[in-house]
């Protein structure tokens, strides 16, 4: 008589894996990986300067003009020194940041974190490259104006430098820097707005000045040729006299020998 076994079959390993998979998934979802807070590069100055000069960022442009005017008034009109002005600006900035951070904490917001601000190496290299290009262009322009045979460009360059020297004799360095800031914030905007008219007017002035220069050159050409001829005759006379003196000295040396 055969005996039937009542023992249950062993549990399959796949069920145990299925049963244990849920807590593993739960533990993985309970602790998500923290995302790093993005840093902010504050050194990209070329685009910011271009936008400020062209008044694309009106708040920054107005703040720059207001800051330049305030610094000029404080140093020139009220007679403050640079260290005094720098100390007051530093105290004002520290107080503003302190109050801003405390207001954030009182409102239950996260405190300000300035440690993420940095100046990248690319921004420093870009600023240095732009400065080097500006210096190279200035030196190259100086040599081009000096070596080029266009008298109009040469005359305009000399006249501009002369006017700058005359203006510098009436103003100090700080006033000149303030004038440059004001001109830099106004002239490019006006030029971009009225570019076609300014180019047309400049072309007319160039054509008229060249016509005046050609007329003056034609009138002065006879005087110039006469002066050149006189200089050549004087040079020939002096050369003959020098040759005669050399020959006399040689003869005296021969006699003494």
TrEMBL record:
Cellular localisation: Endoplasmic reticulum membrane
Membrane spanning residue stretches: 60-80, 86-107, 151-171, 177-194
Membrane topology term: Multi-pass membrane protein
Keyword Acetylation: no
Gene Ontology biological process terms in this record: response to bacterium
Keywords on record: Endoplasmic reticulum, Membrane, Transmembrane, Transmembrane helix
Residue ranges of domain Reticulon in the record: 49-257
Region (Disordered): 1-43
Gene Ontology CC terms: endoplasmic reticulum membrane
Protein name (database record): Reticulon-like protein
């Amino acid at each position: 008589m055969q005996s039937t076994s009542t023992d249950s079959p062993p549990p399959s390993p796949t069920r145990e894996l299925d049963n244990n998979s849920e807590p593993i998934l739960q533990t993985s979802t309970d602790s998500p990986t923290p995302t790093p807070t993005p840093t902010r590069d504050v050194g990209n100055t070329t685009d910011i300067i271009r936008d400020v000069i062209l008044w694309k960022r009106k708040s920054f442009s107005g703040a720059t003009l207001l800051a330049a005017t305030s610094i000029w008034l404080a140093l020139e009109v009220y007679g403050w020194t640079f260290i005094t002005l720098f100390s007051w600006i530093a105290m004002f900035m520290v107080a503003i940041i302190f109050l801003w951070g405390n207001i954030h904490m009182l409102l239950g917001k996260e405190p300000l974190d300035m440690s993420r601000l940095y100046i990248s190496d690319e921004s420093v290299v870009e600023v240095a490259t732009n400065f080097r290009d500006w210096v190279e262009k200035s030196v190259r322009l100086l040599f081009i104006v000096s070596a080029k045979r266009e008298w109009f460009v040469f005359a305009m360059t000399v006249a501009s430098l002369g006017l700058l020297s005359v203006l510098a004799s009436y103003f100090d360095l700080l006033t000149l820097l303030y004038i440059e800031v004001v001109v830099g914030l106004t002239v490019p905007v006006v030029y971009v707005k009225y570019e076609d008219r300014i180019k047309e007017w400049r072309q007319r002035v160039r054509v008229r000045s060249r016509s005046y220069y050609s007329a003056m050159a034609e009138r002065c050409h006879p005087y110039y040729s006469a002066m050149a001829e006189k200089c050549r005759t004087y040079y020939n006379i002096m050369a003959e006299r020098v040759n005669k003196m050399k020959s006399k000295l040689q003869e005296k040396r021969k006699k003494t020998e």
